[in-house]
Amino acid sequence: MGVSVQAEDFDLGAELAALRAGRSDIGALVSFSGLVRDMPGGGGGLTLEHYPGMTEKALAAIEAEACARWDLQASRIIHRYGALAPGAQIVMVAAASRHRHAAFEAASYMMDYLKSRAPFWKKEGASWVDAREADEAALARWRREA
């Protein structure tokens, strides 16, 4: 279990293999990998900025909450920052559990909270991006289920 905030790309396969290495108690491993879209008009990718220390703490809190809500054997969050070209990986969340339901729910929860509560500032082309209403609306589901 752990979080990483990094400029470097990551190997999704290697990260998932590391989560399940030496484990026979995992029955489900769910992951999500977010990629930079090529925006209409060719915005040239995006730039993500963050405050070191604060960002890692926020991501660790999201992961800890997922682990408290679901019985997970392992979990992982990686989020990149810096200038990212279209097609580049931005984020990975992974949740491993004995059963698929917990893994799916935990991975979805972590991603929803990363989109809305992780302290990153995103710039597409020359414009800073505000939070989207759809991202905030996704959080309402988790508040009802708490």
In a nutshell, what does this entry contain?
With 146 residues, this protein is of the alpha+beta class. 38% of the residues lie in helices and 32% in strands.
Mean pLDDT, to the nearest integer, reads 90
- Helicity range: 25-40%
What is the H/E order?
EHEEHEEEHEEH
CATH fold annotation:
Aldehyde Oxidoreductase, domain 3
CATH architect. name? Alpha-Beta Complex
Please indicate the count of domains: 1
Can you give a write-up of this model?
The chain is of the alpha+beta class and 146 residues long. It has one domain: Molybdopterin biosynthesis MoaE subunit (Aldehyde Oxidoreductase, domain 3), CATH 3.90.1170. Helix content is 38%, strand content 32%. It has 4 helices and 8 strands, in the order E-H-E-E-H-E-E-E-H-E-E-H. It has helices at residues 12-20, 54-69, 100-117, 133-145; strands at residues 2-6, 28-35, 46-50, 72-80, 82-84, 89-97, 120-124, 127-128. The strands form 2 sheets. Strands 1-4-6-2 form a 4-stranded mixed sheet, sandwiched between helices. Strand 7 (120-124) and strand 8 (127-128) form a beta hairpin. Helix 2 runs antiparallel to helix 3 and helix 3 packs across helix 4. The chain is globular.
